[in-house]
Amino acid sequence: MTTIRTATRSGTRGARITWAHLLVAKLFRKALIRSHRKKGDTFLGQPVLYLTTKGAKSGTVRVTPVGYVLDGPNAWLVVASLGGAARNPAWYYNVVAHPDALSIEVAGKRYDVTAEQLTGDRRAEAWDRITAERPSMAEYQTQTDRILPVLRLTAA
Question: Of which family is this protein a member (predicted)?
């Protein structure tokens, strides 16, 4: 298993994330998560898990809804896409900074998880599966010049 030692670098181009996106996310994070949970852990018809991380700088516990693709029993593939932005999402840096402080909630069940960043052939295989199930990920990749990190979360 490859542990995450350093974060994948940001790109030089990508989808524009405006201050309005960030403000809405910050102000309505709890309400959005409650709403997602009531609707069966989906967003726009796609499955969502709730990733709990420890803030890379603040140490504050954060919960973030993240789309996923199942990867066998008790394993989930997630992509740090941030909608194709030039930079990685904050939750990704939290995972890198505190890989020992991760948990997820899926379908009402909580799991402590370990994260593995996939590379090489394993990433290519996972990427093919992810983009087959979630075509938006392929679109996000075309919007940025960074390689979107693919993480495999496994129940501990």
Answer: Belongs to the F420H(2)-dependent quinone reductase family.
The pTM of this model reads 0.79
What's the pLDDT tens digit per position in 2-28?
456 556 666 665 655 666 666 666 665
3-state secondary structure the chain: CCCCCCCCCCCCCCECCCHHHHHHHHHHHHHHHHHHHHCCCEECCEEEEEEEEECCCCCCEEEEEEECEECCCCEEEEECCHHHECCCCHHHHHHHHCCCCCEEEECCEEEEEEEEECCHHHHHHHHHHHHHHCHHHHHHHHHCCCCCCEEEEEEC
Q: Could you tell me the domains of the chain?
A: 19-155 (2.30.110.10)
Q: What is the C-alpha end-to-end distance of the chain, expressed in Å?
A: 13
Predicted confidence (pLDDT) per residue in 102-114, tens digit: 999 998 899 999 9
pLDDT in the model for residue 1: 47
